[in-house]
């Protein structure tokens, strides 16, 4: 049984001052770096996902063509190669084994919807690494963390969400997401 860490979307556009900044995003970035410094050896593999949207078009309706509704479409964010798509400066990525890019021309909420820069699926890498358990941290609790954790459960993985290392867009929605993950069989633990 091998445990992995999923670091979900700790990017400039999702932290304070970004196009879709989440309150607490800076603290999550610093906290994940601390987790890796203190407990990184407990993980057989570390994955980090990033929204990596196409610069052209609406990315399958993900980018609003008018006023965004902030539910199904959004302002432009995390365009591939842009400063907003880069990892937050407080996130130390030296211990990341596999980078996953998601949303390339599509919505892409879950880490399972992404691929490595070489085009490998997350499932392939998980299988090759013998991963059976994952800890999930990152942004935002009520969107990409939620979907990634639920998909991991659906893929038969044992899932823990570290509640002190996630931050929601909306606090009530974030609390509901953590409750949904727990009801689906995941475990929510403090930092």
From TrEMBL:
PANTHER family: LD05707P (PTHR11080:SF2), PYRAZINAMIDASE/NICOTINAMIDASE (PTHR11080). Coiled coil: none annotated. InterPro entries: Isochorismatase-like_dom, Isochorismatase-like_sf, Isochorismatase_Nicotinamidase. Residues 4-189 form the Isochorismatase-like domain. Pathway: Cofactor biosynthesis; nicotinate biosynthesis; nicotinate from nicotinamide: step 1/1. Pfam families: Isochorismatase (PF00857). The keyword Metal-binding applies. Its EC number is 3.5.1.19. Signal peptide: none annotated. This is nicotinamidase. Keywords: Hydrolase, Metal-binding, Pyridine nucleotide biosynthesis. Belongs to the isochorismatase family.
